[in-house]
Task: structure prediction
Amino acid sequence: MMKKTRTRTRPEKKTKKSDTFTVTSQGPLLESLVTAFPGKSRKLLKAVLRDSQIKVNNRTVTQFDHPLKPGQVVEVSWDKSSPQKRPHGLNIIFEDDDIIVVNKPAGLLTVATDKEKRKTAYSLLSEYVKTEDPDNKIFIVHRIDRETSGLLLFAKNEKIKLKIQETWISTIKERTYIAAVEGEVKRESGTITSYLNESKAFIVYSSQNPRVGKKAVTHYKTLKSNKDFSLLQVNLETGRKHQIRVHMQDIGHPVVGDIKYGSRIKPIGRLGLHAQGLVFTHPKTNELCSFETGIPEKFNQLFKQNQK
Result:
């Protein structure tokens, strides 16, 4: 199924080794690793993924379900990389010379504000890239709310940042969120369209009047529900500020924990919104890049009993 070669370097005291194989059939990265290395435990293979010891076509990948294509070359280093290569509190999903995709935890700002200037996703990544070269920089491409977890894309140089932002509509193919909302959403799917405008108090309002805001379109699908909560998969056709949060309020099912937009309870101790999927065209190679994370366990806890 796969062609494997082994390369070894020869330091004076310790032998470092890596294994390389060429992909012959498409499938998720972890399953291909299990097939390629039957003598290695699944636990070990997950660890080398987590520790950024795997490259696909010379690009570091940490996502276990990263889709592989025939002809790609996978290199596995069995020696753990230096701990300074990993930013504490931020999971790097993918990295190459031009971009970084991370899974941001809830509670962490994307970028500094007047009240918080130190610990942000931006500052953590800035410190991370400077460990390799003090002149390295990170550039913000887009943002997600502080209390929203999930996928964020950053550029590693200004040229790439501008290219993505200037071609955003054609470059970003899909943005998928998981929303835990109040109440039972009985429709299997739906589309919400309105015009959004932000007040001086930084609250976004929804209107059907095209003259008082920017058009926002949100598509949703109900994944599961009970009498108290529903879990929705949400796809953005437009990317307005607080779009999902306002649109969930519009249909009478606010995002749990979202006191600003109609929620009255905090059953999971955080905002029930997670940026699960991101699909885009790579700004340099024009390859289609697809990333997806799991549903936060706290969201699933709402449906452990009385599942519909």
The mean pLDDT is 88. The first helix runs from residue 29 to 36. The two ends are 42 Å apart (CA to CA).
